[in-house]
Amino acid sequence: MRGVTEDLPLPGLPLLDDLMPWSTAPLRLGRSWIVAPDPRTLRARWDRLVAARGAEREELFRSSRARTPASSVAALPGQRTGTVRFSREAGRCPEPVRIAYRPFDEQWLLPDHRLIDTARPELWRVADGHQLFAVEQGYVPGAAGPALLVTAALPDGRSPAGRPGRIRPLFRRPGGAEPNLAPGLLPLLRGRYGSGVAAADLVAWAVAAGLPSPAGCRVPLPLDPEVWAAGVALGRELIEVQLRGARGGARPRLPGGRRPYVRAAVPDRPTGLAYDPEEEVLSVGEGRVSPVPAGAWEFEVGGARMIEQWFAHRTAPVEPGSLEAIGPRGWPREWSSELLELITVLALLAGRAPERAALTARAVRAGVTRDALREAGVLPVPDTARRPASVLDHQEEGPEGQFMLL
Fold first, then answer.
1. Radius of gyration over alpha carbons of the chain, in Å?
2. Structural domain tally of the chain?
3. Hey, which of 43, 78, 332, 393 would disulfide with 93, CB 3.0 to 4.6 Å?
4. Residue 176: exposure state from Cβ atoms within 10 A (0-12, 13-18, ≥19)
5. Is 280 left (phi over 0), alpha (psi -120 to 50) or beta?
């Protein structure tokens, strides 16, 4: 929403950090070969690495200061992976898991702590069928695009321009227990907007009305309950589009006649992307997709076009002989299906941008300030609310098969 609030006093608006205080920095994967658009590729890479010995395994592994084949590392919470030093690993590939890899790009990850530089285990402990993750995008001056996205998959949290954002789980404990809200905030919201307000409503409102700023995502809380209700309803719809059928929702669809189709098959090695705004045609090499609304093609996060970034993640040159070089021999059919869904998601979100802008402007001009939250006792947030909740009800496997109690 570039330019929507240039004349409005943003510094007095609450930060998402005030409202959802527990957050983590993005994951640091450390090596790109542990992520791929399909699980078959990851299994092939694992088999190649495990078959290598000595110096060859070291070279393929791509060691860093945080991880080498000799690193001693605990298992990730909830994952059945080995904990022997990877230099001695000879077993089968762990089951890849779906992650939100950068905005609007779901890929697959090898969930092995020995392969990930900084995995944020506290996020894995609360990632379950009840959890949603609000991913605050890194600030890029003058860039268009949403300040906040939501995913049901565990996110890597990286912004397109490489600037760090924040990952904020909706719940602090597994099973949808203990909302990640500032103490006292939910009673305040219920007193202002009605007794039915839930933690998920705040996330929906933030998705609809959140604004980027150098200090982080700003979330204007309106004085008018009707504005709040309209924003929550809009935010729920935007979240449902972003979740793409997860958590029992409907998969996103454009109206009949506006749904994109593959008009000419994408070649095995497409050489680039091109867009014709008059014909609404996206050229993927010699392949053709249409209709593609201009809003989908132009949709940006952090200054990067999402369709271009999605394509680059699947076609960028790789070093011959590396594990990254192991991948599909051509353009899999499922990639075309994923591209059509991405176009649909971006078109639906872009179509609601004017509605978001009008709603946000109303909330900013007459809203709850950070000073009002201080007077209500919501701010400052206690340090305990900014730390992960303790988990004491299960064991996790430590290095070399030892168990630790958390």
1. 22
2. 1
3. 43
4. middle
5. left
